[in-house]
Amino acid sequence: MSRRWTARLALVAGLAALVVLLVFGGLASLVLMGLGWLGLALTGAGVWWTLTHTGWSRALAVLLAVLAPLAVLLLYSAAGLLWVVLVSLALWALAVAAGRAALADDGAPGMPEHPAVRAERPFLIMNPRSGGGKVEKFQLAERARALGAEVFVLDPTRRQDVAELARQAVADGADLLGVAGGDGTQALVAAVAVEHDIPFVVISAGTRNHFAMDLGLDRQDPSRCLDALTDGVELRVDLGFIHEGEPGDVRPGRVFVNSASFGVYAEVVQSPAYRDDKARTILEMLPALLTHAGGARLDVRADELAMDGPQAVLVSNNPYQRGDSVGLGRRERLDSGELGVLGVDVANAAEAAELLMHGGQGRGLTAVTAREVVVDADAPVIPVGVDGEALTLSTPVRCRIASGALRVRVPRNRPGVPRAAAPMDWRRVRRLALTMGRAATGHGGA
């Protein structure tokens, strides 16, 4: 189906949703719609109070968050309009999905690929514990050695410096580095590849494999990533760097391939109790952190934008997509030359409800891009999560991006990066549905 007809489907489905509501529900449906929005707002407020209170207050907030939507459904059912609301919502969901699909820019190019010469002495580091034992399950070491790579399998019983292992391999003649492991290990070895300007191979043997996903690699079968050794192309991707201390501090920065997180999440994962009981630790710590009664107060500057006292900040190597249901799950590009910055600053229940009612959009969320981000605090050191690793860094902490710093070798044939649907814009959908055909006709007659 063409984009024009998909846009028309969106308009028809949206109009049908309103017609069903008005024809079969009448004026009563409008009242119940208002009650529905009220229920959603109360649910958002209940969630906020659950996160920011303890004891009986938290218990009452949980009841509110659960009972508010149930009460709305009971009112719809008692009025005999539950089916009307459900059909209307289904049509509206179809309208939004079709509208966003119509707005998707299918012609946008992906990251440019460059021809690559096969490496003569590839060196791969593999973590046998990553991803629940994917190295052994997919026989990655054996397959890599069969392709001519030297493989170093880490010893899970002792700590080993993977960056030093990579540097020694380069000194011994390695002309390509690679990692089968988590994103934190990927970042450490990628930094060495950048130092020596040699290619880097990502093998998706970690648990989440965010970096591999955003490179378009196969996350289900990590052995397919080894095809990069024999039939690969090269991508030039950006890297994030994080530095601690004042600008004159000589301590080297650390690379991050995905993100650096500050505030609530970083504080929670630093707690000694977090590993033993994650849920309980989060519930115990959140009230103080969200209300600024505990933890460091952050002061953030993203280029010219200042954020005073956000509860959480995520700085990512290229911005995460926010136009689809997985929102913060992936990045469409890794070569934009910009950091993504997400700041959360929810002051009260009303702002929490606004975020819920507007699908993650509202006053409490700031989303921008920047070349440099500086995070200061009212404390000399702050916890930071860097590619899933819990660190403690001296303030101020500076994040910057190095454009095209990393040469990543990927298989020529790979799944690719799924495209996200565009954010919904009814004006653009209407314009696309009503004018695109005429424009095409006019062009054809020129």
Description:
- With 446 residues, this protein is α+β, with helices and mostly antiparallel strands.
- The chain contains twelve helices and 17 strands.
- α3 (82-103) crosses α12 (426-444).
- The strands form two sheets. Strands 1, 2, 3, 4, 5, 6, 7, 9, 10, 14 and 17 form an eleven-stranded mixed β-sheet that branches. It has a six-stranded antiparallel β-sheet with strand order 13-12-11-8-15-16.
- The chain has helices spanning 3-52, 55-78, 82-103, 134-137, 140-146, 162-171, 183-196, 210-214, 264-270, 278-290, 349-357, 426-444; strands spanning 114-115, 122-126, 150-153, 176-180, 200-203, 232-244, 254-256, 259-263, 298-302, 305-308, 312-317, 339-344, 365-370, 372-377, 381-386, 389-394, 397-411.
- α7 links the parallel β4 (176-180) and β5.
Give the key terms:
446 residues; alpha+beta; 6-stranded antiparallel beta sheet; 17 strands; 41% helix
Brief synopsis:
With 446 residues, the chain is of the alpha+beta class.
Distance between the termini: 25 Å
Count all strands and give the number: 17
Number of helical stretches of at least 4 residues: 12
Rounded to the nearest angstrom, the radius of gyration is 25 Å
Could you give a short account of the major beta sheet?
A: 11 strands, mixed
Q: What are the secondary-structure elements, in order, as H or E?
A: HHHEEHHEHEHEHEEEHHEEEEHEEEEEH
What value does the average pLDDT take?
A: 84
The geometry reads as globular
Q: Helix/strand/pairing class, anyone?
A: alpha+beta
User: Helical content, roughly?
Assistant: 40-55%
